[in-house]
Design brief:
Structural class of chain A: alpha+beta
Number of helices of chain A: 5
Oligomer: homodimer
Shape of chain A: elongated
Order of helices and strands of chain A: HEHEEEEEEEEHEEEHEHE
Largest sheet of chain A: 8 strands, antiparallel
Helix content of chain A: 10-25%
Radius of gyration of chain A: 26 Å
Largest interface: A-B, 74 and 74 residues
Strand content of chain A: 35-45%
Number of strands of chain A: 14
Chain lengths: 245, 245
Amino acid sequence: MTTPDDATRTLADPTPDAAADLVERGIETGALVTLFGRCRVDYDGRATSTLGSGDRHVMLKPDGAALVHTDEGQQPVNWQPPGCEHSVRVAEGDLVVESERSTPEEELVVTFESVAHAAAFDVTDASDLSLSGTEADLRERILDDPDLVEPSFTPLATERTTPAGAVDIYGEDDDGRTVVVELKRRRVGPDAVGQLDRYVDALARDLHDDAELRGILVAPSVTDRARELLAQKGLEFVSLSPPEA
Amino acid sequence: MTTPDDATRTLADPTPDAAADLVERGIETGALVTLFGRCRVDYDGRATSTLGSGDRHVMLKPDGAALVHTDEGQQPVNWQPPGCEHSVRVAEGDLVVESERSTPEEELVVTFESVAHAAAFDVTDASDLSLSGTEADLRERILDDPDLVEPSFTPLATERTTPAGAVDIYGEDDDGRTVVVELKRRRVGPDAVGQLDRYVDALARDLHDDAELRGILVAPSVTDRARELLAQKGLEFVSLSPPEA
DNA sequence: AGTTGCATCTCGAGC
DNA sequence: GCTCGAGGTGCAACT
């Protein structure tokens, strides 16, 4: 049985040894561990980074993820992805937290000069996020009412594979011409045009049917440059957004 | 003057009112505020999401960022970017934390059934991250020793603008032919080929000099599909990684 | 404020 | 495990 005191363990201004004990136990018991204090951070792996002394918030997740947050930005200043092994030790009087993995080999080391706060939380979370307004929702909107692309458009397949990748919607128009539709949930730039162009090009080679092939980019809007590229490549644009709800 | 007690304020199993006071004061004083407890999360803005009851860690940063973390994943399950206005209130006995912004209009609401922990940390962090192994480092490596691309390659400009965007390195080869170099710090797929192709294409139109134009993708490696696309487009590949240090 | 492309992108799906 | 593309991508640089 878990009482509130068991579920959450916290320490204010702990000694390095006391903090290490809490973190160690937290890692072992699958808790979500947080630390706040003055620290340095070193990372080596896909890239290499160093960060001098400053106050940061460190989170160690039971799935192996590690996050180091400063007072600014949505993104952690340093991190380690899920699947890592966390460990903690005291070295030369400093609390040292490490998180490492292989494939690729990479390691994160946080060295605390001082720890202002340490906590371990037992987490129970069975809920899944329900998200709407995605590209998948836009696809459903079109499959429900293909005329939104153009009158008499007929979807034949989704995620149809081509030598260049999977086409969002593959179908044909009123005149029986093959249509490749690329969907984007938001305003698009040149990259999306390049993507559609790759698919159309690949399918043209596959079908030996270049003249009868159309490519349509469906998105809320396009940038100027994207519009120019569409024109250059002979591709089309239809303005459509994901459903509100 | 700031004592350790001033710098860090924490509450265990606080009442909603006590937690609200701490959060309110933390927001006002520019502290980094964290909460842990059972909550629901609702977001509406660029998309829409709901998340049922579960134990999560919430961080409110003084720059206006908000993060909601579950026990899994490197990414927050919900968030709000920097620049938002945080607010807190007690409604029907629940602690409710809100974070909102305009342009685009979006709002995050976290409703706590129970709060296990609340904390406010005063943050001092003057250090900047030093990162190496980036695309910029790869570019420097080539500018230092252009022969790494090919013997007698001569860089003429970086970030040269074309109608399709900026070229990483623009130069010429031994025979005076124009060379467009696209850099990637890691293994690349079809998207990078499309990008290089766009630049070469745009520059060809600009220079009216199609035959003498070469495109070289410089990266550690390429996927099979990317290699096929390179061949189709008449583009080249040179294997090179960012420097180790 | 809008555009463009990088990122230790992360994440999920498919293979 | 790798590949590929979406993402409420975030983020900086530039216009």
